[in-house]
Specification:
By secondary structure, this protein is mainly α. Helices cover 55% and strands 4% of the residues.
Length: 100
């Protein structure tokens, strides 16, 4: 664990954070909850919306359920709009919360 600028303990690596779901979950809702949680924690830890976007899309590719969460074209469209429009932590939170 490390200390943040406010004196709170934070994980040495964002992967140390207990996710809401699991990368191994085949339940779409649980998995998407885990992806959103990790993206938000990534953003809070590194204060970097673009890194959180990258984390989100990287994690989405891990889903092993019966059908993909998003098709390839949906991922491309979401990624391009996210990269073009998200420039703050509040925008990133709003965007992540809107993904279903």
């Amino acid at each position: 664990m490390n200390m943040d600028m406010y004196g709170s303990t934070v994980p040495a690596d964002i992967s140390d954070v207990e996710p809401a779901g699991s990368a191994l979950s085949t339940d779409r809702a649980e998995f998407l909850s885990w992806v959103k949680y990790r993206a938000i924690k990534e953003m809070e830890f590194y204060d970097d919306p673009s890194g959180a976007i990258a984390s989100f899309f990287s994690d989405i590719q891990l889903y092993s359920g019966p059908t993909p969460i998003y098709s390839d074209i949906q991922i491309t469209m979401l990624m391009s709009t996210a990269m073009a429009n998200i420039d703050s932590i509040s925008n990133m939170r709003y965007w992540v919360d809107g993904c279903n």
